[in-house]
Protein: Iron-sulfur cluster carrier protein
Organism: Candidatus Desulfacyla euxinica
Amino acid sequence: MENTGCHTPGDFERGQQDKMIEANLARVGRKILVMSGKGGVGKSTVASYLALLLSMNGKKVGLLDVDLHGPTVGRLMNVQGGFDTAEEGVVRPYRFSDNLSIVSLDMLLGENKDTAVIWRGPMKISAIRQFISDIEWGDLDYLVVDSPPGTGDEPLTVAQTIPDAEAIIVTTPQEISLADVRKSINFCHQVKLKILGVVENMSGHTCPHCGKDVPIFGSGGGEKMAAQMGVPHLGRIPIDAEMVDSGDRGDLKGLTDKADLEINAAYKKILEQIS
Ligand code: ADP
């Protein structure tokens, strides 16, 4: 059949959505995608804590959790409630503070946070695009996006939807984690995503009793790997039981008051490099 060049309704809607995405992203300064090769390395914690610290430094920050199967930002940040729909026809993110807005799939799950989200690729792609197109984020200095581990639909959708996003890749120091991070770095090269650098989380631990350094997962592996792969190394964050406790209680903010914590000095260094 001859191609008349007509557009299907799907094409039209997608075109409209592209325009909305473009308009919303034009109001955002920096877009940072936080990735990891493996789960459990502290990626959501790094994304949330960096977003929190940036907002406390006076920046307007949006935190978007696209880890659709395992959204944790809502728990780490104790998000109580859903979207702000006070104004008719407008959906705004959850307002954590004057400077920090959050969107996580947790917010759509209602009371039952243990619901398993069983979605195939197209639904995930559609949800991520809607989180950007249909939500009124307002003017932001930073949009921090927490992506699930690996190189699947979610980071790919972010890379394609936000072409000027910059990636932070979180790893732990041991080889089993670093092997997957190399894949994340190669993914960024392939989809032409700028890499801000690698963060080595859970790097060393100072024993609270004797003060000795205990390299539980080792230390320095992320830095070495970053040098080998020719990407910046942003810093090492040690293991700290207070981080686990604050995360479990949804009170990462409480940690920011503890000026003498080693993790806060480490985050400060990272922040200086990405601000
Ligand atoms: P991911 O997003 O990579 O799956 P999470 O951010 O959910 O990882 O963190 C996994 C666990 O590790 C959480 O219990 C979190 O509190 C803990 N954690 C993260 N960073 C640190 C750290 N520097 N020291 C100790 N525990 C940490």
The chain has one domain: 31-274.
